[in-house]
Known about the structure:
By secondary structure, the chain is an alpha/beta fold. It is built from 10 helices and 8 strands. Strands 1-2-3-4-5-6-7-8 form an 8-stranded parallel barrel, surrounded by 5 helices. α1 (19-33) runs parallel beside α2, α1 (19-33) runs parallel beside α10 and α5 packs across α7. The relative contact order is 0.16. Bound molecules: glyceraldehyde-3-phosphate.
Amino acid sequence: MTHTASSLIVGNWKMxxxxxxxxxxxxxxxxxxxxxxxxxxxxxxPPFTLLDRVGRMIEGSVVRLGAQDCRAEPxxxxxxxxxxxxxxxxxxxxxxxxxxxxxxxxxxxDAQIRAKxxxxxxxxxxxxxxxxxxAEERDAGDAFLRLSAQIAGAVPAGFGADSAGGVIAYExxxxxxxxxxxxxxxxxxxTAHIRQALAAHLGTDDNLPQIxxxxxxxxxxxxxxxxxxxxxxxxxxxxSLSADSFLGIAAGAxxxxx
Length: 258
Ligand SMILES: O=C[C@H](O)COP(=O)(O)O
């Protein structure tokens, strides 16, 4: 179910896109994606309203479909929410969980994110669990503590070892949508810490979840970020809304050592 590629390039459209803009963007991405080596996997996460349309457009291509959230319960009286089995029914493969915008705007807790991840795994979806420190936590020297706590609270037992796999996206909150990408050195040391914290939490060094970096990634810095040994891909927001930028980032993955 999950990609085995060496670089996972995930585009999170957030709350953007209409049927017309999606048709244009996906058409351009599919044109460019054909030239990418199989070691680069593309995932597009449109808003719920476009999942069906985008899913139909990418059918039969190398591009996979992702959603931006799900509810932990499989069905019921939860107005406005979408359950994991509903996503699986639409052909969705990945689901972003615990994005900092949802933690901030919907007060999502690590326990809720963990329950959502378990629900997603139960129907074969690959969760992309987001973690990241705020600027205040970073300035106080608490970034690693915060990341370890998020891993302990939000990552289910056995995460990554399931046939659906598992992905962790490290997104420093201060780097999201700010144009301020974390430095290569910061990403290197922080993802090394995340890997250690995952191994300690999961009690194994084998089949650990893939680790992505997210936060103002552009085609300019993608190759450098993707050449870091503990980084398996990137989670891209703003730059995923332009085919040139998104494909430029994917090209950076194609050029980085696998
Ligand atoms: O999900 C994507 C991240 O929040 C990064 O967004 P950004 O690339 O616009 O900074």
